Fold each of these.
Amino acid sequence: MPKIITVDGPAGVGKGTICKLLGDTLNAPVLNSGEIYRSIAYNLKRKKISLEDIPNIIRYVKKYDHKKLSSDKLYNNSIDLISSQISSIPELRKLTILIQRNFIKLNNNASRLIIAEGRDMGTVIFPKAEIKIFLWAKAEIRAQRRHLQVKNVRKSNKYNDILDEIIIRDMRDMSRKIAPLQPAEDSYLIDNSNLDIEQCFNRILKIIKK
Ligand code: DC
């Protein structure tokens, strides 16, 4: 069984970049659980399945075969919000557990180490993980970073709109009844509000190497 390092945290905290760096440096595959919720969200939207129609969503997800989709399909305002919304459906979360376990099964023999990134990796999915990291940054800082990232691509994106969306997603992700975003008791908490990616990455590497 490979050792697992979990990295949880809110929207826009830099988990994706940090986990990619960790994966490359430690030669470990990365389970990006957010991408599972995003891919399901993308497909529900494409199939015009109403977000109010929970039985129909569940029927769809039971047959769902997880495949990698391109970033432009998965990372946009509409998918940000739909994925956050559907992720509070308990039955849907049960089904995504199977997809996440399958990832581990597929990498079981080939890898010594797996990085698992998301909201509930350290609390629900891998409670016995070797090392648990919880990343945090102030909502305003996360919105500033996101704004810098997207303003050249989508000039219409306003800082205040991005901040509002981040606050809405934080609230929804933290207050849902099942698997809310919260640090595992035995996690290392890193507030990266005043750290750049390299500083944050080095801090995590130091914890892993300890
Ligand atoms: O990490 P992300 O922004 O790509 O995740 C998109 C949404 O998916 C997020 O708003 C909440 C949901 N999610 C979740 O509920 N549990 C996870 N482990 C990962 C993501």
Note: The chain has one domain: 3-209.
Amino acid sequence: MGTALVYHEDMTATRLLWDDPECEIERPERLTAALDRLRKCGLEQRCLRLSAREASEEELGLVHSPEYVSLVRETQVLGKEELQALSGQFDAIYFHPSTFHCARLAVGAALQLLDAVLTGEVQNGLALVRPPGHHSQRAAASGFCVFNNVAIAAAHAKQKHGLHRILIVDWDVHHGQGTQYLFEDDPSVLYFSWHRYEHGRFWPFLRESDADAVGRGQGLGFTVNLPWNQVGMGNADYVAAFLHLLLPLAFEFDPELVLVSAGFDSAIGDPEGQMQATPECFAHLTQLLQVLAGGRVCAVLEGGYHLESLAESVCMTVQTLLGDPAPPLSGPMVPCQSALESIQSVCAAQAPHWKSLQLQDVTPVQTSPSTHSSEGRPPPLLPGGPVCKTAASALSSLFDQPCLHPAPPVCPAVALTAPDITLVLPPDVTQQEGSALNEETEAWAKPHESLAQDEALTALGKLLYLLDGMLDGQVSSGIVATPPSAAAATLDVAIQRGLSHGAQRLLCVALGQLDRPPDLVHDGRILWLNIRGKEAAALSMFQVSTPLPVLTGGFLSCILGLVLPLAYGFQPELVLVALGPAHGLQGPHAALLTSMLRGPAGGRVLALLEEDSTPQLAGILARVLHGEAPPSLGPYSVASPEDTQALRYLRGQLEPQWKMLQVTSEADCRGMALPWGPALPQSLVGRGVP
Ligand code: Q9C
Ligand code: ZN
């Protein structure tokens, strides 16, 4: 349905006219750098370009007082001295004769984007604006922000479009206190912000930026603050915050629209944030938000002061809005101690208001006194013991292996044998069909009795084409349908083929009656995850099974609390999702799972279905693999006690090895039993271990 990019060159006009080290970072080049990069990457050309309009004074009045609007209007005619004097009355603010015009364009851009999305003209979009908005309050400018662009957009969405539930995700590195104040008693706007806080020692130095500020009156629980108490937060910390905190709440809230206060001062290199998240991380954050609200995501620029980092992060965001798979994240996916403490304290503060957080252990943690300097990345978690150390080192040695070809932007292929489903194959895959690979297909099929019949063989042939296409980087994702009796053997061949092609890490998510192939290697190249409805068991860190929860809350906590943390920790080159016999998954559930597994695998997901699955299921999976939003799961229903127990049990088992599973800090899960000990294959032990 398309992505809008809203902009107006006039927004480069406002600038600092005097010396002020605090304000000089907010400069016109921020916009031109971002736009230039979007053009160079060919991304601007793929968007629907919209020229920003000025917001009306009535629209400004949705959140600002008439007196404040008049005050800003009057700055247009002031001289430099008067501008400087007035600016001094606010915190970290400069006015320029063009500021009023620019600030109205910034609000107008956000509104235009919102209207385009809510009328269905586009699916999502980004407004590239200056000045930013989230520090701006009803009657005050603050932190380079004059009018609160995102807050006005939210108020407009309620008033003009009749929306009832709007999620604002503020990933800027500063606390959007302006937005918080404007909606703190409003349950129709869920405001989530993470921000550099350092126990209150970072700007804007507010007590109400802490985790225990949860909203007031009717709005209790609808303000969610995640304070970062150390600098150096990185990809693992951000993704963990989304998986364990934001997304559970967001699914329970079930927003009709997602507004992003998209500041990129939370990215690596930024002088304000001092954080470590790479630009690719914003592709993942965007992708994670796109599963909400039917994919209606409106991102509006806030901060971001390192021009390179800003430009690249903007590109990552737009590329993902366009539906391209997120590039794999670099670096070990291990959240730091301080991040876990922060996430945990938010869970504790919010648990009374959200069912989705009640499954987690909510005992508040004591913030441990910092033993290291506040500069630089906090040291990684101390391993819980020798076992963890071995596992972690073995895993990191796996990551040293060269990567496969990167997946192409979007190029899914669908290979189905059922006649009533459209066959969509990219030319390079179809052309080879029936040629040399047929012999190879037969060779692969030979050991498997269930692959003897024609139908099974045809499906296998298609699977092998697709798989090779994916491993060579020609095709990003695919769907293959097999006869039910051939599902297990086909999956087995897919795994063997992947390994023989040189795949170093293959994640296999098997649903329904599909057993782990008996002769599978135990060397850590395969993470086998069976969601099959029997019992929760971790036979090793690479072999996990869990019951399939039936209620929405259980299903979501299984995906967000187990499957995705494992997948992000494993960083697979390829994911096989196999919907086997009696998988029991409804279309929307299967779509959500498949859609979210694109994240950790750089988009390389191969879905295996049974031939007699409905054409609707194949269609829905083809669409999510193409980057479309999965359909809504419907109203939230809480997880069953059994589901919660199973999840907790598996977490307890696997947390020491898979750090992305942690929501409690290390101290809390120490002492959990590890019945299977190190369970590391001999071939891995010692590899790359100092
Ligand atoms: N060195 C936005 O990112 N100065 N505003 C903080 C700490 C104010 C940031 C000084 C920063 C305002 C939209
Ligand atoms: Zn900021």
Note: The first strand starts at residue 3 and ends at 7.
Amino acid sequence: MKAIRLILVGPPGCGKGTQAKRIEDKFKIIQLSTGDMLRKAVAEGTPAGVKAKAIMEAGQLVPDDLIISMVGDRIAQPDCQAGFILDGFPRTLAQAQALDRSLKARGLRIDAVIEIRVPDEDLVERITGRFTCAQCGQGYHDRFQKPAREGICDKCGGSQFTRRADDNAETVRTRLKAYHEMTESIIPHYERQDILRVVDGRQGIDQVSEAVSAVVAAL
Ligand code: ADP
Ligand code: AMP
């Protein structure tokens, strides 16, 4: 199968992580979430994590140079040669341009950028209701995606769940502001390359998956 390189873009809480995991399972393309990478770095207390911690808690973007080198190192790993789904990166035009350059230098390019479009007013509830299985990372929602048996993870049977420190109503507003001021400008960048595909993220999770899968299957 040919290598597929995808970007999922959209505001915080639009469903990037949920859909990336489904594409990963269905098409066997690895998910690279920069948010997850940074949270791991914070938990491990690495130099990048120490730098990023307070910035993430405030809902702001970490510096471009830090994230660009983190992603550059990651996509050079052997397990990314068969393709990848970028979830949460790029988030600035400088990051998008750096990614283009680093792929181009290796004769590669992004195949499609899928924008998951959800209005701001829906996002606060999505984010403040989000929780995750501490054991396997499966994502849930208090209202929209409950485990089949309360308190038990559908995927791994785990019973411990976590909520992100930055998933509170106040930080969400800063994160939305960062999205509109810094990230939205990458969309026309990919539109010009004719690789942008827009999906209506207001639909249910399964409907969004169908739309996203149709884009991937057509590549
Ligand atoms: P992102 O990775 O873009 O920040 P997530 O995939 O973590 O967003 O989704 C945020 C929350 O909204 C999660 O709790 C998830 O279960 C829920 N969610 C995701 N997609 C939908 C959808 N289409 N409708 C309703 N809730 C959704
Ligand atoms: P996420 O898990 O995608 O919601 O990201 C959580 C937080 O990590 C963001 O609010 C930022 O502080 C930081 N972050 C993740 N990806 C990036 C990126 N590409 N550029 C800058 N900051 C990022």
Note: The mean pLDDT is 96.
Amino acid sequence: MKIINIVGARPNFIKIAPIMRQMRKSSIIEPILLHTGQHYDIEMSKRFFQELNIPSPDISLEVGSDSHAKQVARIMERFDDVCDSQKPDGILVVGDVNSTMACSLVAAKKGIKIIHIEAGIRSFDREMPEEINRMVTDAITDLLLPPSRDAVDNLLKEGHPASKIHLVGNIMIDTLMDSQAQIMKSEILRQLGIEDRNYALVTLHRPSNVDNISDFKRILLALSKIQERLPIVFPVHPRTRKILDDPELKAITGNMPRLVLCDPLGYFDFGRLVSGCRMVITDSGGIQEESTVYGIPCITIRENTERPITLWEGTNELAGTDTAKIIIFANQILDGKWKTGKIPELWDGHTAERIIRCIEKEL
Ligand code: UD1
Ligand code: UDP
């Protein structure tokens, strides 16, 4: 069974590492790895292949950045040719990025089976580009492999037959658990001059937060207040880099002596920062999940989340972009008034094994 595994953006690499490892042990699956090139900076792409021992891609589409329509169209054109030459039995897609949806559309029209890891998660917010990617991908997927029961329920409510849905757990947590030894060896705290349990970790990259000055300013004003009580480390995503150069925003960050800005970090260094911080302040999907597993308080800078289990069972709360609310939440954490949470069902480090068993049996 020849399966093309699709990756394109940072979180995809972290999800594919354990899947590739398990697939290579299978006697009936022949895995091919395809990188669309949606992310291409060394620190957003190649570094994860090296750290996580992901084999070099067999196929690279090198599409680069563009508007969503143009990026999706370029991936589709190039992947169409790949499918004709490779003739795969199936493709495996992860998450909700443009590469996920674009390759799924090509496969569906060619009658190639689609496996979707992280199926069924929904923010119910169609202004998020990822929500469109999730809905379209799941609508045409043959094997829906959700990370949690709420995602299973969403798929059933949308009318997908139960026979196509298999709860496998959270694949990101496989990598987190596999990497504990390297994460704990990281020297990043010393390199950044910060102390264990005595800093906040910030990441922001959602277009709704970082693509316009007024939204981003509300968030920065909150961070400016928080850093009076706690140093802040902020590895900056490439989308966010540009806006930080705006003079109005520079005037705010210039007055934040305890803000440490840095380039995006490798998986082990970043994992060390999540595991050792006092709180995470983020709009990332994956980091909401990772902080829940580490039991670290997480303030999510969004009005909604497609990972509600991190609110119900984990350490996550939604603050939106309300400056006062973000500050109140941060103070509650610093004053020891935050929920503790537990690790959700099947976020146990064995999701890749369940995925491979399921593919071998069902596809
Ligand atoms: C994408 C995903 C998002 C995911 C995120 C993970 C979509 C619609 N969005 O968002 O769901 O959470 O990746 O990080 O698929 N850029 C670089 N170097 C790179 C990559 C991007 O400089 O290696 C810059 C370019 O200016 C580009 C911008 O970042 O235009 C945005 O990149 P893009 O992949 O379109 O979206 P992300 O915001 O990264
Ligand atoms: N991550 C990383 N270095 C960083 C920021 C994030 O290795 O500087 C990891 C993080 O641990 C998580 C993943 O990248 O595993 C999340 O990716 P991102 O926030 O880009 O995307 P999302 O999950 O929001 O789609």
Note: The domain at 2-169+347-362 is CATH 3.40.50.2000 (Rossmann fold).
